Amino acid sequence: MLVVVVLVVWYGFKLVNRLDAARKSEAKLRAYEREKEEEARKARGEVEEMQACGYCGAYVPASHPQNCGRADCPY
Q1: 53 contacts 59 by C-beta, under 8 angstroms
Q2: Which of 4, 36, 37, 45 fits a 20 to 30 Å CA distance from 53?
Q3: Positive or negative, the Cα torsion across 28, 34, 37, 42?
Q4: What's the pTM value of the predicted model, to 2 decimals?
């Protein structure tokens, strides 16, 4: 009877360790995928060209300039 209890505890610890290793591996994989996605987004060039406002010098998006809040802003 004692042998059965020891074996159950032994295999229980093995199972817990395998589950923990799988969880850590999955977390590491997700972190790697997030890192790769971040690099890919940077490589795609998701940036916007900016231009300086001729009156106040504030930089506004070139594709759709918006008012900077000053009364004399031309946008």
Answers
A1: yes
A2: 45
A3: negative
A4: 0.47
Q: Name the nearest CA neighbour of 62 among 44, 47, 49, 46.
A: 49
Place of tokens 């004692």: 2
| Encoded tokens for 44 | 């795609």
What's the rounded mean pLDDT across residues 47-53? 79
Mean pLDDT, all residues of the chain: 85
- The tokens describing 19, both together, are 């589950």
DSSP string, 1-23: -HHHHHHHHHHHHHHHHHHHHHH
Beta strands in the chain (DSSP E): 50-52, 59-61
